[in-house]
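>> received
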Amino acid sequence: MDVLSTAGVAAGERLAFWREVSSKLWVPYELGCERELENDFEADVGVTEFGPVQAALMTSTRHTVHRTPKHIRQSDPETFKLVCVERGGGRVAQDGRCTEFGVGDLVLFDTSRPYQAEFQEHISVSRLLLLGFPRSFLPLPPRELRSLSATRIPGARGIGALTSQFMLQLARHLDELSPSDAARLTTLTLDVLIAALADALDAGNAVPPHSRRRALMARIHAFIRDNLGDARLTPDTIAAAHHISLRYLHKLFQQDGHTVAGWVRERRLEQCRRDLADPRLAASPINAIAARWGFTSPAHFSQAFRAAYGVPPRQYRAQCATVPTVRAH
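>> returned
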């Protein structure tokens, strides 16, 4: 992930620097903030590209942006931007609509038409995930898509909530993605977006069945990862959270060559293995680590860990502790 930041830039030059960064990274637009806040302006962004999708995790103090017809004539990449808020919030206006958005909410806007956006006045710092992708990648009617610009898709309920969970988890792990991980996320991320937008339009039939299935699986996987530490996470609770039958949930996993319980167990074991190898957690009891990731029986955890990795958890931790640390010079 490439990171750009105002850190190290003189206070009086940060706005101009960020204006240039924004123009090159996204699209040209007017960028400004209140005069009394200019010397305190700070921003940074981490950028990952997977295929045609650009994911940017931006943290910034308050400012405003305004993309005008003149800017569009200067550069029009014909892309949509989707904002998902991790911290803070703001408002965006386009096509005669203005909406406020907060943590977890999704907002779509089209860079080919004028828009204005600003952060909330009472929040000093906001953190946003911005996804950019070609308009041509959305198999939805253009006229209906236009009706979604500057419309808030609530992140607190329904498909919007499940999509938001997926997006926020993506934001938290952007810096961990390898090139191969990023490549695999291209189709998956677009499928999730398509399903959320189609639901907002009530145009589910416009989405290909395979895209709906992949989007649903992505949301289910995100939900499971967010709840791995809950010992009450079962196929029943997973199915209920996604408003599908238990039978259909099992069918979805079987199509990928997995069982629901098996997939959950594998993710839990992965987290336990990571914690056991972490020297910062060397003082944490093995049973506590297992419980943290949803294993209620120490004996069952030890047996499952040995079956997965060939050694008991205590031996694995000891092996990791003997591996020499390579120091950077």
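>> Residues 325-329 have pLDDT under 50 and may be disordered.
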